[in-house]
Amino acid sequence: MPELPEVETVKNYLEPLLKGQSFAEIEILNPNLRIPVPDDLSEKLANHKIEQVTRRAKYLAIYLENNSVLVIHLGMTGKIFAHQELPDTDKHDHLLFRLNNGDYLRFNDVRKFGLVTYLNDNDLTKSKLFSHLGIEPLSDEFNGKYLREISKNSNLEIKKFIMEQKNVVGVGNIYASEALFLSRINPTRPSSKISQKDTDNLVKNIKGVLELAISKGGSTIKDYRLVTGESGYFQHEFKTYGKENNPCKICSTPIKKIVQGGRSTFYCPKCQKN
DNA sequence: AAACGCGCCTGCGGGC
DNA sequence: TGCCCGCAGGCGCGTT
Fold first, then answer.
1. A55, A118, A161, A259: which has the fewest Cβ within 10 Å?
2. Within 13 A of A47's CA, how many CA atoms are on the CB side?
3. Is A58 known to be catalytic?
4. Which nucleotides of chain B are near protein (any atom < 7 Å from a CB)?
5. pLDDT computed for residue A225 by the predictor
6. A263 an active-site residue?
């Protein structure tokens, strides 16, 4: 899936398409997602004006005039395509949204780790999907002081720590590797062993890499596509992710691949010392 | 109670 | 060519 920059990019595309419109009908083609798509989705959401299109963590939260919220998560392979007329559907399409202006949105998800549902209450914190989520990485609350405070007593490896959604949301497997490289921190270093100065730097680099990726329209690897079907561009700027055995951009040492918590991690063993 | 590891599901590419 | 295995932007759950 899409990590935070990809979801933010989707949000930015959807906002002008949706804001002020309403859903005329939402057709469920296949309800079998991470949680089943509720039968009454269309009934609950249709014909209520769309007020806001937002992102929280890696979720899209689309607020309607009747206080309900359409919630979409793209999982690993979820995609949303926009069309100006009735599109052909393929076997991994799960929902087809028809807007009052005749546009369509198509939700496609090969691996079905995504979800589409609604909330009756627009206070996201009341939902089980959102209640446990930590702060946003691009917010002012996410700063070196905060990160050091929550990490200084943890022996969890730093890459796992920053990917933990209760600590900070939206930092996925790619951007965790990239931010640690930029910060010259070994991904296996215990969180407690990172100085305030290095923590400040890590926060700066997490924000920097996410913002840069957003500015490039996210990263396209395999399945992820922009709403328009175009690719994002940030994948061309990866310094470590997927670069096993390629020379480090700084010192030319071959990039190493290890596995942490079942996820691949890429880093430079020379630049990123423990 | 934090932390691990597994399962959810499908497709693709590499190795044999 | 074909089969089998490992791996993939995430996340929640049960178990230690």
1. A259
2. 2
3. yes
4. 2-11
5. 56
6. yes
Where do the H-state alpha helices sit in A39-156? 41-45, 144-151
Q: Which two tokens stand for residue A16?
A: 């002008």
End-to-end alpha-carbon separation of chain A, Å? Answer: 29
| Residue A221 confidence (pLDDT) | 64
Determine which one of A3, A8, A157, A178 is catalytic. Answer: A3
Residue type, A18: L
How many angstroms separate the CA of A119 from the C1' of C1?
Answer: 51
Instruction: Given the residues A58, A79, A148, A256, select the one marked as catalytic.
Output: A58
pLDDT value of position A222: 55
Amino acid type, A217:
G
The reported pLDDT for the residue numbered A66 is 98
Q: Are A10 and A2 in contact (CB under 8 A)?
A: yes
Backbone CA torsion sign across A153, A157, A162, A163: negative
The architecture (CATH level 2) of A4-123 comes to Alpha-Beta Barrel (3.20)
8 A C-beta contact, residue A137 and residue A57: no
Q: Does the CB of A91 fall within 7 Å of any strand B atom?
A: yes
CATH 1.10.3720.10 is the classification of domain A144-267: no
Q: Where are the domains of chain A?
A: 4-123, 144-267
Token couple for A158: 């730093």
Averaged over successive runs of 10 residues, the pLDDT of chain A (274 residues) comes to: 89 95 98 97 98 98 98 96 94 97 96 98 97 97 98 97 97 97 98 98 98 88 60 86 95 96 96 91
Answer yes or no: is A150 CB < 7 A from strand B.
no
Q: To the nearest 10°, report the CA torsion of A85, A90, A95, A96.
A: 10
Torsion angle in degrees (nearest 10) through CA of A242, A243, A249, A250: 100
